[in-house]
Amino acid sequence: MQILAIDDDPLMLHTIAMVLEDSFGEIHTLEHPGLAQSLLESEDIQVILLDLNFAIGDSDGAEGLAWIKKIKELRPHISIVVLTAHGFLDIAVQSLKQGATDFLEKPFSNEKLTATVQAALNLAHSQQNLADVTSSRDLLVHQANQTGSMVIGKSGSMDKVMNMVAKVAGTDASVLVTGAHGTGKEVLARLIHQQSARAAQPFINTDLSAISSGLFESTLFGHVKGAFTDASQDKAGMMEAANLGTLLLDEIGNLPLELQSKMLAALQNREVSRVGEHRPRAIDIRLISTSHKTMEMLTDPVQFRQDLLFRINTVHIELPPLRNRREDIKPLTEHFLALFNRKYERSFALTRPQLKELQDYHWPGNIRELRNNIERMVIMDNTDVFKGAGQDQASADNLYEVEKRKIAEVMERHAGNITRAAAELGIGRNTLYRKMKKYDL
Fold it and tell me: Residue 48 forms beta bridges with which residues?
């Protein structure tokens, strides 16, 4: 439940929901922002589409501008896309100054709406993840000296990983981080950036699994005004936005072969050409890529271009699954308990037998699954909601578990190839990727 549309026109809300549901799942709708506070407190809303006028006869956008400020104070990492009538560009500019992310002039096309929401969602994810890393730095990050020596966990396998990070962070070498979902690949990428000489420059996270083929070039390389229908203004792509900083190509192993050549050309030439523009723009970026696929899968030329693999893989770091670093479960659990007890103003604690149960569980969803379970326990103030060991057949047969097991089975059969697995399951790649995140697969 990530997207909320607020407009006093029920027909507009219905249209927005219909257009966006295929790409983003269920869309929340409200007819006035005054109704949004309880929803923001109970749901993980990350993007708000907001009309600016809610009283009959109003056209100055004052009410909507005031609500932008209130919403950003309540949830600073939310992306707000303003919906404005054609010709009211000055109000749209004011909304950006108040904290809005982007604006759409009515009427807008379905393609423009979807692309704008996707960009806003990417920005919200990036800002929230950076905030999470900062807030948990007392556990996950230890700076031993001025250049910093990042330490995550106490296990020997993580010591090896962090020794590699310490060696590579100060260089501009391209890094490929592999590991199962939930092992902390993006967190590690951010730590490398924070340890680098580019730390004060942008860190741009591009989730390649969430970008459709039709939007790939526009999203990565940008476009100029008039390049295609509804390209009403020049827009920099994510590669250009990362100039002088770090570009994270998240889940690069899911990039279709026909798009891998375009990515390779941009990385080799260190330049991008915006869609509709023939003048290339030079880029200076530090490249970090991640993939849940193993190196064995990535070295299969049927799945991945080997010349692109050579380009992104100067240094390879493999993150171990949590089941192979059980000595880290206790400190991670203690950290998450402290984090969520503070967040929810609780004082929940685990007994030794309960902690041992967590340490004995195999954690297929890795750190993300552990975090979700600890948060659930703190909220409910008991360990009965632990979704790991001790599940009986009745719970294993519920719809949640059936779908989770089926997706895991199909993904294993196709060696992690999301495109092939999605085709067998009869759903889109984006839908499958969202479900995998939901089930910590």
Answer: 4, 80
162, 187: one domain: yes
Query: Which residues have CB under 8 Å from 203's CB, separation 6+?
Result: 126, 130, 190, 193, 242, 245, 246, 248
Contact 204, 238 (CB under 8 A): yes
Domain that holds residue 371: 326-390
CA atoms within 13 A on the CB side of 222: 23
Domain termination residue (choose one: 390, 406, 426): 390
Taking alpha carbons only, the member of 118, 78, 129 closest to residue 100 is 78
- Domain harbouring 431, CATH code: 1.10.10
Tokens of 286: 């530090």
Q: Is the pLDDT of residue 15 over 60?
A: yes
Q: Are residues 193 and 47 in the same domain?
A: no
Radius of gyration of the chain (CA): 23
Q: Are residues 141 and 241 in the same domain?
A: yes
Alpha helices, DSSP H, located in 302-351: 306-312, 329-344
Look up residue 320 and give its DSSP letter: P
Find, among 147, 152, 174, the residue nearest to 162 by Cα. 152
Q: Is 154 in the same domain as 281?
A: yes
Identify the three-state secondary structure at position 51: strand
Q: Which of 198, 199, 211, 200 is nearest to 238 (CA)?
A: 211
Q: What global pTM score does this model have?
A: 0.57
Say if CB 206 and CB 122 are below 8 A apart: yes
247-294 residue pLDDT tens? 999 999 989 888 999 999 999 989 999 999 888 889 999 999 999 998
Q: Total domain count for the chain?
A: 4
Give, as one character, the DSSP assignment of residue 227.
Answer: S
